[in-house]
Design goal:
There is one protein chain. By secondary structure, the protein is an alpha+beta fold. The chain has a single domain (about 5-164), classed as Gcn5-related N-acetyltransferase (GNAT) (Aminopeptidase, 3-Layer(aba) Sandwich). Helix content is about 25%, strand content about 35%. The chain is built from 4 helices and 8 strands. The protein has helices at about 20-30, 40-45, 100-115, 130-135; strands at about 5-10, 10-15, 55, 60-75, 80-90, 120-125, 140-145, 155-164. It starts with a strand and ends with a strand.
C-alpha cells in the first residue's frame, strides 16, 4: 500500500503512512480553520487507507486528502442504504497551490473510494471556497444542498455529491 500512485514535477503521490500523520495534522492546522481530533486521523488511516493520500516533495509532506466511508440513504434515488465515500479533508500548503497537486490528490482519493466499493461520494465545503468547489465540480460532483452554520465560525457549507 506504500507504492507511488503518481509522480509529477518532483511531487510524489502515495498512500499516507502512520509516520505521516503529524505532518498531515500540521498542514491541517496551518491551512484550515476547523481541525480534527487525533483520533480521526488514526481511524481514517486504518479504515480507509486506500483514499488517504499525501503529496510529498523532497521527502516533505506538502498536501493531503483524507477520506472515510459510511452507509446511508442514497443522495440520488430511493434505492435504500448504500456505501458512501466521504472526502473529509483536503489541504495543500499555500506555496504549492495552483499547480494541479490538489487535482491529483482528489483523483487518487476517488480511485481509492471506488476500490472501497463506494456507490457515491460526498463532501462539505465552505460556500466561500470557490476554488475547491470548482475543483470538485471538475470531477463531476454537484451541489446537493446548503448546510446552514455548518462550520464552527457559523459559515454555511455546500454538500457536494457524485455517483459512481
Amino acid at each position: 500500500m506504500n507504492e507511488v500512485l503518481d509522480e509529477r514535477n518532483g511531487i510524489i503521490f502515495r498512500h499516507c503512512r502512520k509516520e505521516d500523520i503529524n505532518s498531515v495534522k500540521e498542514i491541517n492546522e496551518k491551512t484550515l480553520p476547523d481541525g480534527h481530533s487525533d483520533y480521526i486521523y488514526q481511524v481514517l488511516l486504518t479504515e480507509c487507507s486506500e483514499a488517504f493520500i499525501v503529496a510529498e516533495k523532497n521527502t516533505r509532506i506538502i498536501g493531503y486528502v483524507m477520506c472515510g466511508t459510511d452507509f446511508g440513504y442514497s443522495n440520488f434515488d430511493t434505492s435504500g442504504i448504500v456505501k458512501k465515500g466521504h472526502i473529509v479533508s483536503l489541504s495543500l500548503l499555500e506555496e504549492h497551490r495552483g499547480n494541479g497537486i490538489g487535482k491529483t490528490l482528489v483523483a487518487e482519493a476517488h480511485k481509492g473510494l471506488k476500490q472501497k466499493e463506494c456507490n457515491e461520494t460526498y463532501l462539505e465545503v465552505r460556500l466561500s471556497n470557490t476554488i475547491t468547489i470548482n475543483l470538485h465540480k471538475g470531477f463531476g460532483m454537484e451541489i446537493k444542498k446548503i448546510l446552514k452554520s455548518y462550520y464552527r465560525d457559523g459559515e454555511d457549507a455546500y454538500r457536494m455529491i457524485i455517483k459512481y
